Each structure stands twice: as structure tokens, then as C-alpha cells.
Amino acid sequence: MAKGHKLTAKQWISRASFCFGNVGHSAFYGVMSTYFIIFVTGGMFNGLAKSVADKLIGLITGLIVAVRILELVIDPLLGNIVDNTKTRWGKFKPWIMIGNIVSIILLLILFTGIFGLAKVNWVLFAILFVIIFICFDIFYSFSDVSYWGMVPALSEDSEERGVYTSLGAFAGTIGWNGLTIIVVPVVTFFTYLATGQHKEGPIGWFAFAAIVSLVALLSALAVCFGTKEKHNIIRNSAQDKTTIREVFSAIFHNDQILWPSLAYLLYSCAYVITNGVLFYLYKFVIGKPGEFWIVGVIATIIGFCTSPLFPILNKYIPRKWLFTAGQVSMSLAYIIFIFFRSNVFMMDLGLVLFNINFAQLVTVLTLTDAIEYGQLKNGQRNEAVVLAVRPMIDKLTGAISNGLVGYIAIAAGMTGTATAADMTAHDIRTFDSMAFYIPLAFAILAIVVFLTKVTLSEKKHAEVVEELKDKLAAGDDSAAPSAGTDNVGAADTTTKATTIYAPVDGKLVPMKDVVDQDGEVFPGKGFAIQPTSNHIYAPFDGQIRFTFGTRHAFGIVSDDGLELLVHIGVGTVNMRGEGFVSHYNDGQVVKKGELLFDFDRQLIQNSGYQDTVVNFFTQPHRVEDVTPIDYGSDIKHGDQVTTVKFK
Q1: Fewer beta carbons within 10 angstroms: which end of the chain, N or C?
Q2: Which residue has the higher pLDDT, 7 or 374?
Q3: Cβ proximity of 280 and 407 under 8 Å
Q4: 515 pairs with which residues across the strands?
Q5: Helix or strand or coil: residue 646?
Q6: H or E stretch at 610
Q7: Which of the listed ranges 63-77, 148-162, 209-223, 232-246 does the model predict with the highest average pLDDT?
């Protein structure tokens, strides 16, 4: 949203609705990914022989792991289904509602133990469980893909999209950690109402699932009624869809996607495994399940602080050191969990340290920078990979966590009606080794991988972008991403012509007069404008091909096939997007004079960079003739600059 723009009531409602949407959505995910396993190990098979119960627990946790891994293939297919949906309510809202309603019904059935079927016929129970859980996971994924996928449809403004994403993440912290606060009191209370016993029983777990399901349904309704999809942008057009094969191909051909992903995988494994067994720590090791709520309170408070603190810290501290600091903090937490858990103060300190981490933010930003790195190294530019990799890792680590939590519960004897008094020294050692020692090793390995293998620092990325810009200016086609079927005329030998209109108000200057900080002349064939306004408009009818991750430059191809790169400022790659606000989506068809960008000229100058807007042809070898340009003259956006003849 451009600075100084006053939000309307509808925009406030849209923001609030989307924000509330992830409270229930995230809480529902927490129930299915963490607390369902706890219910399975602690309540679902009460009344069965321990040997049979343990076999069923092992079977269920194994099936859940298999289904979660299968999701890695299923999710892109679901995304395509959502993308191809056309209804009067848009393409996202129907799937948000359908996905929520169906998954809620199926989750509640699972929390009844499929109506106690295991006690009657455990073989039939196992078969039905597989069918129900797969259906449940598919429909939850429909709502998940739709909820996050609708962000670009809510606004064309990159900054406003960032606001929606931040609000969703903020609400997710409340939903996820709120479960930790309420789970024991709710489960215990409803179990007491039904049985008169102060413990976590099956009826209490069902009530807990029902309450969270109701919140999830209300959240879905808020999103559907409180937001409005915009239909004047092109989102995820057919050529932009990415198959699972393409995702893995892009990962393994780009080492700066591969290594940050591995570091994040190690961190995420450590975090989700430990987070998944903290309830067992309080119930079976410390013997104080009633104090488990403090885990959620501390995680919520720290989550509120770290996200807004990250951009401030990153101005002074490179990303790799923020990642390292987070992993060191987590490692110290493990030491406290192992050696000082009898001390309440130290345990609270350990929970604080455990949640101080910037790994997710660092990983997303590093992967985003890897777009240009891959474009320079391999000629591949695939933004969809950035959207797909981290969620895929989260699903993979969720599967690993589900499997290990069930295994830990069985191996350490933390199933059924067991209590802290039943735990032996061997049980505690078994629990510690898998809940803390192995994750501690993962956290340390994450540091090693990031410091030794992740070379794409903020400075390195700026160098990559500048090198990529030079290759594009020189007409190196390997540096330019394919325009797909919309790259009209790329293989045509007939001469065509495109008239270029001024994208910004200002004074026309030749490119030979544009000199960077090192005294080098800006390369390429084109023209520059010394701007007098803060707005960039489309220089002709065409399609946006791509935008650099640093948002200081974008490529556009005309309807006739002329490719132009608009570079806002000189040296502005180092601003890493600060002061730049786009009003389009990559792949969007635009008309001449349509507002594409706002940029802060004053901020650029105060940062020590030039605000000159440089326009150059990314395929100069195709250009045959350029009509004379009236350099030195003042010009308004939309005024004709030149006509280019090209093949």
C-alpha cells in the first residue's frame, strides 16, 4: 500500500477476516499434527491389551508418516485443481469451506476412535483409518492451499500482500500456541464432567477436538465473508504451474536452494520433534501436566517478538549469523531440558531459548535470493519453487515428527494409563535420547551446513543481480527466463515494431551518461530518464515477465515480442526492496500507462544511490533500428520516446 493511503472500512475488515482465518486454521492443524498423536498414544485404545494397543499405535503412526510423505506429491495436484476452479465466489473460497467442513467431520470421527471400532475389530479399524485419514488430509490440504494461495488475489500491492501474510503468520502463532495453553485444562475438564476423574480421557480429547473444530469453522466463514477476491489480475497461469518433478529438478540444479533447504530441514526436524514431545516431558518426566500451559504462553510471547524484530536486526546483522544465533539458542535450550528440568526458572528460560529462532525467515529470504542465483547459474527462473520448498519441508518434518512421537511414546512406556510414577530410569534415558539428544545434533548440524555451504549472503546476492543485469544488457539469452507461449516473435524473422512510451516523468538522458559507484558506464542498449516523480508506468501494452527479488527491476515483453528491462535506480539492488512497491503480479498482462511501481526517490538518494530509471533491451541483437531519442528534453509518463524495429 503506498505511503499516505488511508485504508477503507472494507480493507480493515478484509485484513481482520484474513487474520482471524488463520487462528482456527492453524489451531486445527495443531490438533491433527500434534495432539491427535498424543490422543492415539494416551486415550484411543484404553481398554485394549497393551500389546494390541502398542501394535495399533505403531500402525497408525506409520500410516500417518506415509500419508504425510504422499502429500508431497498430492499438494501440487490439489493446487492445480484449485487454480482451475471457477465459481461465482471465486476459486479459493469454495475449497476453504469444503475443505474445512469435510476435514472437521472426519477429524471428529477419528477422535471417537472410529466409534470404538478397534475394540470390536482392529483389522477393520485399521482399514477404515487409512481411508478416513487420507480423505481427511486431502480436504485439509485443499483448505490450506486455498487460504495461503488467495493472498495475491486479495491485493495487487506487494506491500499489502506482505501485510496479509504477516497477519496470517501472527494469527497462526496464536492458534498454534493457544492449543498448548488450553489443551490440558479443556481435556481434563470435560473428562471430569463425563467420568468424575481428573485426567485426560477419550471424552475430553473429543471435546477438545470439537471446540477447535468450531473455531476453525468460524475462521473459515470469516475469510469467506470478510474478504473479496480481485479478478483483474493473472495468477498462476498455466505456464507458471510447477509439477513435483520440476520442483525437485530446480532444487537439485541450484545448490543455494539445496543447502539452505537442508539446513532448514535439520532445524525443522529438531523443532517439531521436541515440540511434539514436550507434553510427554511435563506429564511423564516432570510429572506436572497441569503446568504444560506455560509452554504455549512462552512460545506465543516469543513469537510475537521475534517476527517484528527480525527486519530490524537484519539491517545490522547478516542473515547467516541470525540463523546461527537461533540454532545456538535452541542448543542451549536442549542442555537445560536435559540437565536442569527440576528447576522451574531454568525450564522457563529453556522454553524462551527454544523459541528464539529466525530459521524460517532466513530460509525464505535465502530461497528468494536463490531465484536470481539459479537464473544466472542455470538460466532457470522458477519462483514457484520458493513457494513450494519450505511447505514441502514442513510436511516432511511433520511426517518425521508424527512417526517419532509415536515411537518415543511406545519405547519409553508413555502410553495408555501410564503416569510419571511408572517411568523407569531406562524409560527416561530412552525419552531423552530421542527427544533432546538427537534434535540437539540436528541443531548443531544445521549450523555447520549453513555456515559452510550457504554462500548466498546479502552481499553475494547483490553481486549476482548486478552480474545478471550485465548479462541481460549484453543480450545473453541464457540469463533471461523463458516467456513461454507469450514470448511472441522470439523465433520469428519478420521485422516488427514497438513504440516505447516514457515509464516515468523526468528528463531523457543517454545510457552512456549513467555511471555507477565504481565509475562504470551502465551497460546495454536503451535510454535512461532522470525522474521527477515516484511512479513507474507500463511503457507499452504487454506482459510482465519477471521481477527481481530485490524489486528494483522488472522485465516486460510487448505484445509484438520486444523485451525491455526497467531498472529503477543505480546501486539500488543493495536496498533489498526497501522503498519499492509493485502493483502487479508476475505474468500479468498490462496496458500502456498502467501504474506498475511506486518508488521512494528520497530514500534512494539518502541511501547514497542514484534514482535514474534505466530502460534497456534484454535482446539487443534482435534490434535493427531505434528512432532518434530527444535526449535532454523533459518528458511525462505516456509520452512517446522512440519506436524500435526488431526481428
Answers
A1: C
A2: 374
A3: no
A4: 521
A5: strand
A6: strand 610-617
A7: 209-223
| Burial class, 533, CB count within 10 angstroms (exposed 0-12 / middle 13-18 / buried 19+) | middle
- Determine whether 245 is exposed, middle or buried from the number of CB atoms within 10 Å of its CB (0-12, 13-18, 19+): exposed
Sequence-distant (6+) residues with CB within 8 A of 286 are: 341, 342, 347, 420
Spatial separation of the C-alpha atoms in residues 464 and 450, rounded to whole Å: 19
* β partners of residue 613: 529, 568
As a whole-number percent, the residues of the chain with pLDDT over 70 amount to: 90
pLDDT in tens, 610-639: 999 999 998 888 899 999 999 999 999 999
Query: CA-CA distance, 260 to 369, in Å (whole number)?
Result: 11
* 354, amino acid identity: F
Beta strands in 117-171 (DSSP E): none
Which of 496, 545, 507, 509 lies closest to 639, judged by CA? 507
Cell numbers found for residue 196: 468424575
What the block records as the C-alpha cell of 513 is 551518461
Longest Cα–Cα distance in the chain: 90
- The burial class, CB within 10 Å (0-12 / 13-18 / 19+), for 114 is middle
User: How far, in whole angstroms, is CA 360 from its chain's centroid?
Assistant: 8
Is 50 exceeded by the pLDDT of residue 490? no
Radius of gyration of the chain (CA): 28
Paired residues of 493 in beta bridges: none
Angle at alpha carbon of residue 545, lines to 589 and 526, rounded to 5°: 105
Active centre residues (catalytic)? 567
The dihedral region occupied by 30, where left means phi > 0, alpha psi between -120 and 50, and beta the remainder, is alpha
Strand order of the β-sheet with 595-599 is 535-537, 595-599, 580-582
Give the residue with greater pLDDT, 335 vs 398. 335
Round to whole Å and give the CA distance between 124 and 126. Answer: 5
Give 4's pLDDT tier (boundaries 50, 70, 90).
very low
